[in-house]
Hints:
By secondary structure, the protein is an alpha+beta fold.
Amino acid sequence: MFNKILIANRGEIALRIIRTCKEMGIKTVAIYSKADMESLHVRFADEAVCIGPAASSESYLNIPRIMAAVEITNADAVHPGYGFLAENASFAEICKQSGVKFIGPTADMINRMGDKVTAKETMIKAGVPVVPGSDGLLKDIKQGIKIANQIGYPVILKATAGGGGKGMRIVNQDSEFEHAWDSAKKEAKASFSNDGIYVEKYVEEPRHIEFQIVGDQFGNVCHLSERDCSIQRRHQKLVEESPSPFMTDELREKMGEAAIKAGKSINYEGVGTVEFLVDKYRNFYFMEMNTRIQVEHPVTEEVIDHDLIKEQIKVAAGHPISGKNYIPKLHAMECRINAEDVFNDFRPSPGKITSFHSPKGHGVRVDTHVYAGYTVPPYYDSMIGKLICKAQTREECIKKMQRALDEFIIEGIKTTVPFHQALMKDENFRQGNFNTGFMNTFDFKKLID
Ligand code: ADP
């Protein structure tokens, strides 16, 4: 087992990883930017190294500085968390070259899945259903329009390097194509320095259902069941739950098998997520694979009662997995608590938290790095925590979530708590009657007291 893990991340996930390391008797090193000096991950790690100023490019994305911190602290493994360098193949390779274990897949596996076009090609070869679309990247608008007509509108333009809902545009007819193309390309270039675009059929009224998988160094891959992440705003997840209210035993069997096939096709090592779109007839299509721990991993942890970070570290250290698939026994749901003003188009709301009380009680979990007196910096992601509830049934889980949200006090900044309170009251949501387009028509302000 590792002696010391450096956590190349910040916020709640850095703290989350430190917790498991402590329980496993592994020492931890936090890295932090000057904007994060007061962060809890800095306080709770055994050692902490300031690696630069606030800008991510100068700190959490700066590989030479992170490698210097690895060297001076003598860490023997690096945990990348999610975001930042978690899916950066060259970072994984540099760690390997430096004799430090990157807790995650190899550079080659990241390359084969990180690029969405390559991932789709791999899945087609493995016999996993994919959304119909272009064979690889589009050369120009003319070719794009031709393919759009072949597969039929509506279509979606997607950045091959895409992530976080960026670089995607829905196109309904030829006349909209050029504008969508230009703006998707521009956004992709700015966000990922890669403006490669492909097109696929826009699946109407789909659910976003993803499977958690885990693979070891011996070729075993199993799945830990699904999460439904259909409640999204601008392609970004707001609420996740397991099991999916849309799931049947038969569909889980088929999708689970496809997810395992996806993992096996690249000899996947580590925890990963295979994302699918599921249409109203329960046809499912591979969308992409995330080769890292996800924000929403606690939902799975709660329904199968396993620590996924621990699994991840054990697999990285060369332990075999049991190879058994897990089916949820309980219901769990996660609400993302963001520092955003929901009454103002979800605009980021950084600043000082003047008072903070987190909900507690049976079946309630809060993963957060913030506290009263903490200042949410404006430089990073606006997520400040996750509220996860579990119960015997979905109905009870929603009731518990309502109770927990009512107990949540965060003053000084605006948060997404009022939005979640409204969502929990919505009849369609309560009935499990929703798809990824839910937010287009959901008037949450009406449901706020
Ligand atoms: P990202 O990596 O940016 O998160 P994804 O490929 O995971 O991008 O897609 C994010 C979301 O965009 C999906 O959950 C879904 O809501 C929507 N989406 C992506 N592709 C399609 C498609 N072909 N049809 C319908 N919706 C799609």
